[in-house]
Amino acid sequence: MSMEKRLLLVFIIIIILPLSIISLISYNSYSRSIQENTVLYSRNMIGQMMERVDDYIDDMKRISSIPAYIDDIKLNLVRSNEYHEQRRQAVGDEGSQAFPNDFDLQLSIQRGIEGNIAFINNIKRGANSVYIFDEYGNGYYSSKDGAVRLDIADSYAFWKDKVAITHGEAMLFSTQEYRSNLKSNRYAFTVVRKILDRSLNPIGLIAVDANISVIEDQVVELDKVTRGTSLIIDEQGNVIYDSGRKILATNASENPVVLKAEGSSGSFYDTVDGKRQLYIYSTSPQTQWKVIIRIPVKELTKEADVTRNVTLVATLFIIGIALLASIILSFAFTKPMKKMIELMRRVQAGDLSVKFKVKHRDEIGQLGNQFNRMLSRIQHLIEDIYQIESQKKEAEMQALQSQINPHFVYNTLETIRMTAELNDDTDAADMISILGKMLRYSIGGHIHDEVAMREEMDHVVHYVQLLNYRYPSRFKLHLDMPDPLKDYAVIRLLFQPIVENAVYHGLDDLKLKMNIWIEAEMTSGMTRIKIRDDGCGMDHRTLEALNQSLQSKTAPRMEGSGGIGLRNVHERICLHYGRAYGMKVFSSPGAGTEVVIELPPFPGKPARLASSLEVHGRNGR
């Protein structure tokens, strides 16, 4: 059987027969079950709403516990308590003039606490105000909308009296009405908790106010769905919220509806103003807040009356439409599938130029788009493979060329050196020979390659030799290194930039000669290399800026090239060995400069024995 016929048969069995039976049953049972379904649905809605409210209150309780983990808040509360305790004793003993106000201390405490309160207040949406008090009722607070209680002293006294019996647990207070400093009446429910020090002694109090709009948003959504009105009360009958806002922050324990709402959940009918009402209630197991929904029965049955009249006509009409739609959809589904199967066969034959014409954005259209993208991607991949192969050959040629050019430079330098020797210019010959060794070492490998420390030292020796040709006998290099460390593996060009920095920044016109010492030592924790000179040194400000530049990734650029060269070496050390290692600079004016390099402990990875000079020497001739 083809897919069209199977789909048509399935549509007839699944749509027509069940629709006829369901329509008959639903007409008889709809009116009876609608109220039961409403009760169940409303209870679920209440449960979901209360879960969200409970989650919000849990968040408030967690927020109220934050000061217990912020030492800055506890420290400032202790400071505030000590200050006011001393002031109270001084005032009681000697009068109000005996202990003058320390406004700087009070401002420091206020800033320390309120800065953290602002952070706490931004953690959870809807936390209108956060108040923190010391043991003497001095309040520090922050509010998102700028509104705080005018009756803060009375509120503190009430809260402290209620939480006195607790041991640091959070206590929830139902909705209260208060006058704000913005000259408006507001409603909020509050979570209050003692703040304890490490010895579990109370040092203060935190109160987190949540604006009643947090609950109002949930209730409005609930009333919209149930088409009724809601009332939320606590265990004592205090009204947390009501849809009409007529009895907010009052006690409704004697209300007849509240009296009938016995137990944790249930429903009952009552008549109000001659109209029959359905009441559904449920209690939160966490806060013990009870939600009571009132729904007019007329609202429940008006749709059933309409359904009774149109069910029969609608059933016959839907059956006719279903038959017509079954025929149309069966062909609509299978036609693009057949087209795609045909295109896939052409792709299997090697034709990648095919394309599926997308007419709709349904699943078939999405499948067609993915099919077209797949073919396009395959074509791009084929083109990329050809391009990569071409680029690979070109890169190989460039690599060969890059090997030829350095050797041409080396051989040219060697020719110049031999010519200088033939002309009895030994100084020029020696300088060219040293320059050739330095050039081979500098570009003979990657900058992050590791070489033996003796090779690094040879490179520094060559550098100082060239300097002494330019400035005769002005520089003297002293090397002090244990023999085991000579085979220690270090990154290439580690010491020469530091020596160069010492030469160009440590020598002035007044000092005719400079000594440079390079010393190395081994410890259990690291390998330490010291490069120091007896140059002019640097002042404290320059030294501090230089060290800050070395330690900071975002440090400002140092004036001159010295800071840049030293920081380059430091960053290479950090990248190669890790941030635990690096470089520090010590100096004072007129006393020279010392650079300390810290590397991983020895023995480390052994350096290769064959030097880059020897390798390039063989390849360059």
From TrEMBL:
Gene Ontology molecular functions: protein histidine kinase activity
Keywords assigned by UniProt, alphabetized: Cell membrane, Kinase, Membrane, Phosphoprotein, Transferase, Transmembrane, Transmembrane helix, Two-component regulatory system
Subcellular location per the Swiss-Prot or TrEMBL entry: Cell membrane
Main location: membrane
Provenance organism: Paenibacillus chibensis
CDD domains with a match to the protein in the record: HAMP, PDC2_MCP_like
Catalytic activity, reaction form: ATP + protein L-histidine = ADP + protein N-phospho-L-histidine
Record Gene3D superfamilies: 6.10.340.10, Histidine kinase-like ATPase, C-terminal domain, PAS domain
Topology relative to the membrane: Multi-pass membrane protein
Any one Pfam family match given in the protein's UniProt record, by short name: His_kinase
UniProt protein name: histidine kinase
PROSITE patterns, sorted: HAMP
Entries under SUPFAM superfamilies matching the protein: ATPase domain of HSP90 chaperone/DNA topoisomerase II/histidine kinase, HAMP domain-like
The EC number(s) this enzyme carries: 2.7.13.3
